[in-house]
């Protein structure tokens, strides 16, 4: 145990004190914050060239009123079109809008004309259309003598409020599903990255020790299994450290960045939802949504989710990194040659990733349920389902199977590793790896 | 058994239908330097891995210091493999400390011993250097220190001088002699026969997994001698003098003869002196270990 501890300590300390580790750990959150700032600034950017548009209202429907925008000004004029067009160069207008009369009040289409040296840009076009459509609506209401209040009442927004069957269980709000899906998705992606980044780290390190013949020196003092386990635990601790730092630093830096650059995240939300033709977004609605989301976020059972996440993190990491260690031990000096050996490991990870994407949308589908119990997929799929509070028996079964499988795989990989690290100059096939498991010591 | 640090009895080890070690037995006397010889692929490394408990023999027994080999024994063995590496990014001091502590030394003990070794080699200022800054020969010194720092009872050195310049090779060699004086037993594995002749007292020769020769170096050489003598002389040899011996080589002032028994050589020398030949040198030609090695490993070829 003393030796194992020494190995773990070395593996951990040499990595976390390396400059490249410190840089990656600190720069990644910075990169996230930078990305956030850039995206925020892009969304906040608005067309800065203001346009003046001459409006000829032949129909008289507009009543001389068309609301200006920050960078778009409407100027009603009675000058004839021909005159305006002739004197366009000298005028300070950027375009001329001609609104012909409406033939039929019940018509659902109306064509207006826009005269300008250049095609209208998309934002101007959609603004003009929205403004005119609004005004025409008001005009029609008046012309048809309709009751605006009754008209408003025609549109009914449906809000689905989920309620539990069991009176005692916690009440969920309409956002629960979305929040849980977001959190589950993030957890699943983190797990996917963890398996690849740190599993590969273990594999490369095992390979280096083998090709530089360090193992030859080491195994006269320690058992190969100790060496392998020490490395897996050490690198795992490095991974936990890095992820923990990121979990703290990324939100903090993003918060600081948004304060410094004055980026309002609800502005992004607004922009994202504001598509041509869509109803105007109510900022009050956004605030209420954000508050509800925050409340939902807080109401999740983090005391259960976080420890479980750490468990699946460790289980998945041990399971896959031990396999990567076994493959690393079999590789020779040629990285490319051994690459094919990693395929059987990466395939289940990638499959699990896709199942995870489906699982956050339908967390209780039988695919999601069984994949989150199957040990090779569980480390990625189960964390994605945790926020949906799956039944306890499913979590327990998943944990039990994952723990048993991880221990079994670590043991199995140890059997391969002890043969592999001392084997040189042979092209290794999967069949051969299988045989090594049964070698005597 | 008491006067042997290591005893191997009928060791057999097979890898995947290939017999690497086939009933090898030998014993290493306490406090001696023992040569483990053999061509590439003879099974030396397999044997060493069994002795260092890296692998286990399929059959046979290994006794270290009178005890059946067990898992705590590696702490009493120092093994410097032929293919050896160090963590390049680690500092020399940290690396040595790590290896010493893996051999069971406490931190303070390890530090004290390492410091005294580094003082001995005059390399104390390397402590804070990174391993990758050292040359191959310098790294070898570090490896040697790491191999002996826990004062093992048995030291196994596989090609310890490869890559060392003559000055540093001598430095290590002197240390090996000193360690033997302190009672350490040393197994020395190499292809360099002149080193074996110089350093080892006993040898075992392994070929194709089998033990084909074992004994004291002087005895082994004696066993393979062909009773040949070289005589350097001045003047003329009298006629008929060499009729009773077989002349195998002759040049100006030198003659090589083969006798059928040792007494014949004495008679020949006496006769030469009686006949007034001025004898400058009279030497028995013993085969070198190199010749014995080549002859034993490739019986088709003979040495001359």
TrEMBL record, chain A:
It is found in: Cell membrane. Keywords: Cell membrane, Membrane, Transmembrane, Transmembrane helix. Its main location: membrane. It is a multi-pass membrane protein. One of its GO terms (molecular function) is ABC-type transporter activity. This is ABC transporter permease. Residues 19-413 form the ABC-2 type transporter transmembrane domain. One of its GO terms (cellular component) is plasma membrane. The chain crosses the membrane at residues 21-43, 178-202, 214-237, 243-263, 300-320, 340-360, 367-386, 392-412. SUPFAM superfamilies: Periplasmic binding protein-like II. The keyword Transferase does not apply.
From TrEMBL, chain B:
Gene3D superfamilies: P-loop containing nucleotide triphosphate hydrolases. Signal peptide: none annotated. It comes from the Bacteria. GO terms for molecular function: ATP binding; ATP hydrolysis activity. Residues 6-233 form the ABC transporter domain. InterPro entries: AAA+_ATPase, ABC_transporter-like_ATP-bd, ABC_transporter-like_CS, ABC_transporter_ATP-binding, DrrA1/2-like_C, P-loop_NTPase. The keyword Iron does not apply. Keywords: ATP-binding, Nodulation, Nucleotide-binding, Transport. Belongs to the ABC transporter superfamily. This is ATP-binding cassette domain-containing protein. It comes from Phaeodactylibacter luteus.
């Amino acid at each position: 145990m003393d030796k194992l501890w020494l190995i773990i300590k070395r593996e951990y300390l040499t990595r976390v004190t390396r400059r490249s580790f410190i840089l990656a750990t600190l720069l990644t959150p910075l990169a996230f914050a930078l990305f956030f700032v850039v995206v925020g600034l892009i969304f906040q950017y608005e067309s800065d060239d203001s346009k003046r548009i001459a409006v000829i209202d032949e129909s008289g429907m507009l009543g001389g009123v068309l609301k200006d925008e920050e960078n778009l000004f409407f100027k009603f004029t009675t000058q004839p079109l021909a005159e305006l067009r002739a004197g366009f160069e000298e005028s300070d207008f950027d375009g001329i809008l001609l609104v012909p009369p409406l033939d039929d009040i019940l018509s659902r289409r109306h064509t207006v004309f826009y005269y300008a040296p250049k095609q209208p840009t998309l934002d101007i076009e959609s603004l003009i259309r929205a403004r005119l459509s609004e005004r025409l609506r008001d005009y029609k209401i008046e012309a048809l003598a309709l009751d605006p209040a009754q008209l408003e009442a025609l549109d009914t927004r449906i809000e689905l409020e989920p309620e539990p069957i069991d009176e005692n269980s916690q009440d969920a709000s309409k956002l629960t599903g979305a929040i849980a899906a977001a959190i589950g998705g993030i957890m699943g992606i983190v797990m996917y990255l963890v398996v690849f980044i740190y599993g590969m780290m273990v594999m490369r390190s095992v390979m280096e020790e083998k090709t530089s013949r360090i193992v030859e020196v080491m195994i006269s003092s320690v058992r190969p299994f100790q060496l392998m386990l020490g490395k897996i635990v050490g690198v795992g601790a490095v991974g936990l450290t890095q992820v923990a730092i990121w979990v703290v630093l990324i939100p903090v830096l993003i918060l600081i960045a948004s304060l410094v650059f004055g980026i309002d995240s609800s502005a992004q939300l607004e922009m994202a939802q504001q598509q041509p033709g869509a109803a105007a977004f109510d900022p009050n609605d956004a605030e209420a949504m954000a508050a509800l989301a925050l409340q939902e976020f807080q109401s999740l059972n983090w005391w259960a989710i976080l420890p479980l996440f750490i468990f699946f993190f460790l289980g998945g990491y041990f399971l896959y990194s031990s396999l990567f260690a076994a493959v690393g031990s079999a590789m020779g000096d040629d990285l490319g040659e051994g690459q094919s050996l990693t395929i059987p490991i990466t395939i289940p990870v990638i499959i699990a990733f896709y199942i995870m994407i489906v699982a956050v949308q339908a967390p209780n589908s039988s695919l999601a349920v069984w994949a989150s119990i199957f040990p090779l997929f569980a480390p990625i799929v189960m964390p994605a389902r945790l926020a949906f509070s799956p039944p306890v028996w499913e979590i327990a079964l998943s944990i039990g199977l994952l723990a048993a499988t991880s221990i079994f795989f670590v043991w199995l990989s140890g059997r391969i590793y002890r043969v592999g690290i001392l084997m040189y100059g042979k092209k290794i096939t999967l069949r051969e790896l299988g045989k090594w498991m049964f070698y005597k010591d | 058994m008491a006067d042997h640090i290591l005893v191997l009895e009928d060791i057999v080890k097979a890898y995947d239908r290939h017999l690497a070690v086939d009933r090898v037995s030998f014993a290493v006397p306490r406090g001696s330097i023992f040569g483990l010889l053999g061509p590439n692929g003879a099974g030396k490394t397999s044997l060493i891995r069994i002795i260092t408990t890296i692998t286990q023999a399929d059959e046979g027994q290994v006794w270290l210091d009178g005890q059946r080999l067990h898992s705590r024994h590696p702490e009493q063995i120092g093994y410097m493999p032929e293919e050896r590496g160090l963590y390049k990014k680690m500092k020399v001091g940290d690396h040595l400390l790590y290896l010493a502590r893996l051999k069971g030394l406490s931190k303070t003990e390890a530090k004290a011993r390492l410091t005294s070794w580094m003082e001995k080699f005059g390399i104390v200022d390397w402590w804070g250097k990174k391993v990758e800054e050292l040359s191959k020969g310098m790294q070898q010194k570090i490896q040697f220190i790491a191999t002996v720092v826990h004062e093992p009872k048995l030291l196994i050195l596989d090609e310890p001088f490869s890559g060392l310049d003559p000055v540093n090779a001598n430095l290590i060699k002197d240390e090996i002699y000193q360690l033997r004086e302190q009672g350490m037993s040393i197994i020395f594995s190499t292809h360099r026969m002149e080193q074996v002749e110089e350093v080892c007292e006993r040898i075992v020769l392994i070929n194709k997994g089998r033990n084909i020769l074992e004994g004291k170096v002087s005895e082994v050489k004696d066993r393979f001698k062909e009773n040949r003598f070289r005589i350097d002389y001045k003047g003329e040899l009298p006629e008929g003098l060499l009729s009773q011996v077989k002349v195998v080589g002759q040049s100006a002032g030198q003659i090589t003869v083969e006798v059928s028994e040792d007494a014949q050589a004495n008679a020949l020398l006496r006769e030469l002196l009686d006949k007034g030949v001025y004898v400058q040198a009279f030497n028995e030609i013993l085969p070198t270990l190199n010749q014995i090695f080549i002859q034993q490993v490739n019986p088709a070829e003979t040495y001359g």
